[in-house]
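User: Predict structure, ligand fe (ii) ion.
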Amino acid sequence: MVVEAAAASNGNGAGEEVFSKKLVGYDGFQRHNPRSDRFPMHKFHHVEFWCGDATTTSCRQARPPEAPMFGYGLGLTLVAKSDQSTGNHHYASYVMQSGDLVMAFTAPYSTQTDKSGSSPPAAYDQDAAYAFLKKHGMAVRAFGILVDDAAEAYRIATAHGGVGVAPPTTRTDAASGTSLTWSEVQLYGDCVLRFVSGDYEGAFIPGYQPVEDAPQVSYGLQRLDHAVGNVPELIPQVEYMARSLGWHEFAEFTAEDVGTVDSGLNSMVMANNNEMILLPVNEPTHGTKRKSQIQTFLEQNEGPGLQHMALKTDDIVATMRQLRARSAFGGFDFMPRPSPDYYRKLPARIGSLLTAQQYKDVEELGLLVDKDDQGVLLQIFTKPLGDRPTVFFEIIQRLCALEPQAPKSQRGAVPSEVGGCGGFGKGNFSELFKSIEVYETDLGIN
Ligand SMILES: [Fe+2]
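Assistant: Predicted complex:
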């Protein structure tokens, strides 16, 4: 499949540069980093869910006293809040954290709440929040990314076709005198990319209050590794990201790569210069025996949106022992484990890159294993997080110790913060998508 794309300028004033987006599949794709970002972008800052009830959602049903809130399912600590107890009568918002992984859960208050004396927090619109909930249910509203200058980022992105959602707003924290600027452009559907900058030192963003007496909880999750969106058409979406942000393509997969005959998808992974912000995008393919699971998502989500987030840990065995122990008590459920045959064939595919103990552990915990030329990827997927079969999590560990070009003595010296090493699980795609097909059949939705 080949799709020609349009031309775009490179955004740094150095003249016009033509890029061409084509789907060539995993084997035909040549990885190249043109370092073409239109402005400095560094890493994920946070992710924000909009939901109907922030307390209940962040609790994930069970709330044992030793591990409150979303922390029970994922191992996150409540670190900040903005709600009626802090003078915010517009919405309730709770911020959870483990390492650099920060998740905010936000829900609007009643339309009849007396909001006099309470200025609306930056970029918040209650009607938009209710419309979002009605359409999508609980879903990801925003990805925050750290930039040098959120005002400049907004100006440049919108000058190159980015759809503005929230113009830059700066707030200063009275206590510390530090400030934070944020702005938003559309990413896909009702999900926005939120630029964050400034020297702010307080809890989350100005206006939130720190929660200092919450129990410290962590099961080892370190940061957001990548976040995957589902859209009806892939090429216009990646063009939009390349044009407005300057991002480049990091990897891609076609329906043939995915290897399921019943339903299909095409996928491109888009990345910033340092490849620490990875946003893959999927589109459905049509004409297969079954409806594409991406098409099912688009129907269940009522439009484009965030399909899954990969949460990175440096010890997936320890993390997954914690998560699996909580599945039956209000934690997250996981997709069915691969067949014994998958694990029997694994050594032929992965070889000596895993130890005998690691082979034992991955089978015990039902993990998927894959590799590329830079490293090994260990991954597992949850079932959908809420009522709708839409958004879910991936738990991931990247063993970034391979660098074929480096002398043998230097292998293992590759920093663990190499973005995307180990790939995105091409070798696991068919296992994953077969399990999603079975799951959707069981639900009677596909
Ligand atoms: Fe993923």
